[in-house]
Specification:
8-stranded parallel barrel, Immunoglobulin-like, EC 3.2.1.31, Glyco_hydro_2, alpha/beta, 9 helices, TIM Barrel, Jelly Rolls
């Protein structure tokens, strides 16, 4: 799916702002048939949960309604008129005046609705978005709804971050020609000093396609013709981690009367490959330093915010991070585009977090019933997971910053049924994009002895918390356990291995001279212990700390004010560990520890 943008043949109107807002329990039936009868207004983009001082709204189970008036530009006569939601978490039904015009399930990927036959240029309409944050065993991510002791429905979910809901990303009205460029796919390579950009353009039959590639100065360096082809770029400047360089591919579609559509696409020429124990970018070994992150800020929840976007990337640069994982869902496309422009490497993850009944069993890892069963991850869950893969890869396939797909976070890969569940997903991901490696983050319960799917993937990504959830406060024992764990994985699978999560909750300002958990000193020593172990193994290709910043979670006795494993506070203030990471990572500069420049 092409992101809407202004071009010579397309126009774009942003619908962000303050919309009328209400929850279904306080509104009449079919509230979309009139102006919402509510005193409330909600900001878009933002999650609605933290906007209001009302516990019933914050924890609402069911549908909420956003509404505003929209006027179609009068110049859009004879154009295709489309409505774009960058995300609606987790499901949406969209109404124009009294008519439902579209639906979507999946809270972190965009969807378009064609309004050409419903609205008219120059006229206004009432736009209502019904959004549900409800999760079941057949959604991605999964959850369940229980009835509490007071008779009210309660959302239960199996991931450790707050289930923010609503219109957390932008909404757009956009135009395109009736016969338009529908999709563009690019695959890049290089040989010697020449770059290669293979392109495929999806257009209706009968249109003539022409493409040209311009460098950063606007000079055209290659041209082509046809729905598919290959462009040679002499003296190519490669896109590199920390040194981003983008060309611009202009795609034009013609009929017998002339130009009918035009679309511009940034292109970074680079290659990604797993070879032996190395993760290669442009043929050179790359060592990941960075974090798992979250889209999470005060008041906005998961609402996209460009100020936080800029500041977070400044902090990534300051600390020496070269990468992050979009844990545990696709982030706003603006985040990926910013990484494209600034040379930050991304592991792009689906919203498949919580596919593990063992987590419900606590640290025993004993599930109340099998994860891969009719009660939980069944055929409908699998179909939803496939949809997420298609939408994620369809959205992000052309971004040079995205170097690997993560199919799931901490699934029950140790349980029977895991292989039958994941093997078709791996096949689908490779069909959708044969150019990028695949991974998944391995939960603590899945060991090198019992994991059933690791051979399907290219990189082993471990989530391990020795010294925190296991042997807290005993870093000497934790070091021995971590060392043995990694050695076991290396013996089991001849693949690159990285740590996709390791961390310790830390209360900023809490100090001690002993190995006392929750102190800033303990977090620093905990990370140093992990690094000593990582540096022993040449097969290791990266370390991503959990987490970049503290974030909101469910209310719970073990989560006072959220998850505190951030090396930055939720306000983005550094803890002592951030300074220690800066000293280590800025010295590595993307290289494996112990290797030369």
């Amino acid at each position: 799916m092409l992101k809407p943008k202004n071009t010579s043949t397309r126009e774009l109107v942003n619908l962000d702002g303050v919309w009328r807002f209400g929850i279904d329990s306080r509104l009449p039936e079919q509230p979309w048939t009139a102006a919402l009868d509510t005193p409330l207004e909600a900001a878009v983009p933002a999650s609605y949960n933290d906007l209001f001082i009302d516990r019933e709204i914050r924890n609402h189970v069911g549908w909420v309604y956003y509404q505003r008036e929209v006027r179609v530009p009068r110049g859009w006569t004879d154009e295709r008129i489309l409505l774009r939601f960058d995300a609606a978490t987790h499901a949406a039904k969209i109404y124009v005046d009294d008519q439902i015009v579209g639906e979507h399930v999946g809270g972190y990927t965009p969807f378009d609705i064609d309004l050409t036959d419903v609205v008219a240029a120059g006229q206004a309409f009432r736009l209502t978005a019904a959004v549900s944050g409800d999760l079941t065993n057949e959604t991605i991510p999964p959850g369940k709804i229980e009835v509490g002791y007071d008779g009210r429905p309660k959302q239960v979910y199996f991931h450790d971050f707050y289930n923010y809901a609503g219109l957390a990303r932008s909404v757009w009205l956009h135009s395109a020609p009736k016969s338009r460029i529908e999709d563009v796919t690019v695959i890049t390579d290089f040989e010697g000093t020449n770059g290669v950009v293979d392109y495929t353009v999806q257009v209706p039959a009968g249109l003539d396609v022409r493409v040209r590639l311009a460098d950063a100065d606007g000079t055209v360096v290659a041209e082509g013709r046809g729905n598919a082809g290959s462009l040679t770029v002499p003296n190519v400047t490669l896109w590199k981690p920390g040194a981003a360089y983008l060309y611009e591919l202009t795609v034009e579609a013609f009929n017998e009367e002339g130009l009918i559509d035009c679309y511009d696409l940034p292109v970074g020429v680079r290659t990604v490959e797993v070879r032996g124990h190395d993760f290669l970018i442009n043929g050179k070994p790359f060592y990941f330093t960075g974090f798992g992150k979250h889209e999470d800020t005060y008041v906005r929840g998961k609402g996209h915010d460009n100020a936080y976007l800029v500041h977070d990337f400044q902090l990534l640069d300051w600390v020496g991070a070269n990468s992050f994982r979009t844990s545990h869902y696709p982030y706003a496309e603006e985040v990926i585009e910013f990484a494209d422009r600034h040379g930050i490497v991304i592991i792009d993850e689906t919203a498949a977090v919580g596919l593990n009944m063992g987590v419900v069993g606590g640290m025993t890892g004993t599930p109340p019933f099998p994860t891969f069963s009719e009660q939980y991850a069944n055929n409908n869950t699998h179909a939803a997971h496939q949809q997420h893969l298609r939408e994620l890869i369809g959205r992000d396939k052309n971004h040079p910053s995205v170097v690997m797909w993560s199919i799931a976070n901490e699934p029950a890969s140790n349980e029977d049924g895991a292989r039958e569940y994941f093997e078709p997903l791996v096949k689908l991901a490779r069909e959708l994009d044969p150019t990028r490696p695949l991974t998944y983050s391995v939960v603590m319960f899945a060991t090198y002895k019992n994991d059933q799917i690791v051979d399907l993937f290219d990189v082993i990504s471990l989530n391990r918390y020795y010294g925190w959830y296991i042997s807290p406060g005993d870093l000497a024992s934790a070091e021995l356990m971590l060392d043995g764990d990694i050695r076991g994985w290396i013996e089991r699978a001849d693949k690159p291995i990285m740590m996709s999560e390791y961390g310790a909750d830390t209360q900023p300002g809490l100090h001690a001279v002993w190995d006392t958990v929750w102190t800033e000193e303990y977090q620093t020593e905990y990370l140093a212990m992990n690094h000593r172990v990582f540096d022993r193994f040449p097969q290791f290709v990266g370390e991503q700390v959990w987490n970049f910043a503290d974030f909101a979670t469910t209310d719970g006795l073990h989560r006072v004010g959220g998850n505190k494993k951030g090396v930055f506070t939720r306000e983005r203030r550094p803890k002592a560990a951030a300074h220690a990471l800066r000293q280590r990572w800025r010295g590595l500069n993307g290289r494996k520890p112990g290797t030369a420049e």
